[in-house]
């Protein structure tokens, strides 16, 4: 499909070609692959799986949950093929359902994208601090210093996204190869340099419960509450793949290339991530030290390797996370632009503007500013934890917001049945069973990730402390209540879903 044909298809969906359509199919795949980032989530939330299930939560949990996420990806690939617009899942929901569906989907997606940007950049700041601490061992742990790094990284990502959309495309491509080569180096170092490795039995059968819930690793509380909490590692790492849709208006041949880019980014990340995580587990020989550090993945490197290779791994991960955060800002800003273009965001005229480089500058600045604000609670943390609970809460907000946004158009597509008009990439008759699996999986994980992650975060517990509270249900609840109230009192009277800004469909 030529650029003119892409523009014609976009006009049929109701929009002018305002963004520069300079991205290749590989660049489209690259942005989701970079946002998923096995050099980010596998490192930053490793402790969550280690403390809630241990090796089995990783060696078995990762491939199991990856299969369910790939099914969600297949469902979304069919939708982006039919509707390749920057609004992505919001547009799909409004097209397949009613304005109210688009309203809720858009806001959930926007909240999820802001939260995933915040979580990735905060994780990057944490690993930058860990890397620098290797050079300055006298540094004391400091949440304020990490937050300062976080702010600087957000600013850098905003500037990169503002000043060159062509540079972003190039960096996305570089990011793919950095993730592939970087992961290969990490795995190689952990295979060949440690003096000893864990057994296959440890990696695939060992269970650990450092959560404080239940009685060790036996009984129903462990298998049905603690262990599923460990699955957050996989569910958080493999997310953000809707970016393929958000940059579809900038992608050549989007109806096919965005669909392929979406599911392939999940598939290759799942394989690569599992290999990396297994390398971690086989190198995790000092279990006591890892437990004492709260399950921090860096402890595996510093106990199994000498200073130089351990530092190299931390540096590889930090740069990978930097690429990931850069891609998150791109995706977030395109969604903000698209949703504002349809009048849904307060001050929409400001956020839907593009500059002379055809870049939504104001949307970039606004999203990064909100990402900074929602992470402010990370300046405080309960003692003896691997990371502020606020970080895990932001991670949970990202997962819940994004996956609930995915659920709505998938459900609406299921309801449409044979009336749905597919694009060139389609599920065919398999759409029913795959849609149902995706819907059930999203509902289940959304329930788990609003639950307390520590007994200290349970109201009424003798050791209760506010810094241990998972505020994800509060944040998501406030957002849902707010957008529901806004819809009821006002938006239902004026929000009609996507607004056409083109009168004629051009002839290619």
From TrEMBL:
GO cellular component, one term: membrane
Membrane topology: Multi-pass membrane protein
InterPro entries for the chain: AA/rel_permease1
Alphabetized Gene3D superfamilies for the sequence: Amino acid/polyamine transporter I
Keyword Ribonucleoprotein: no
Alphabetical keyword list: Membrane, Transmembrane, Transmembrane helix, Transport
Keyword Transport: yes
Intracellular or extracellular location(s): Membrane
GO molecular function annotation: transmembrane transporter activity
TM stretches of this protein: 26-50, 62-92, 104-123, 143-164, 176-193, 222-245, 266-287, 307-329, 361-380, 386-412, 433-451, 471-489
Protein name: Amino acid transporter
Species this chain originates from: Nonomuraea endophytica
